[in-house]
Model the fold of this input.
Amino acid sequence: MRPCGATPPVWKWPAASRLAGTVAGSATAQTRQSTWDGVYTDAQAGRGRIAYMQNCGRCHGADLSGTFEIPPLVGRFMPYWSGSTLDALFDYVSHAMPLDRPGALSPAANADIVAYLLKANGLPAGAKELSADGMQRIHFDPARQMAQRAKK
Done:
């Protein structure tokens, strides 16, 4: 079993994921969505919170703040995904986490966890659940995030 801190720093993996998201996203530019468009439901984020606590909270903390060695999943976490699509985050969570059992969770559980991460970072819920097959059209939009936070 690998220690929780054995994962590469969070700022090292999104860059490669962004390239994959750009290639995948070019074919679906007409149906592009933003993470600000309510791409998950509150119920899904609730399930994701439970799955997170059972599988991720031990390393990333109950409040998602991480530790000195483990990256936080709130705050500075979202800007690192700027320019990528949600499927890049989903792919990383699905294949590299949890660290002691990579790939052990179902696609539905991983989608629920991603929904919880979106909610924990202040992104709004919507009427339709997030699913793995539409995430390549959902883009992280940090400019909109900054504008939203400036209004508060």
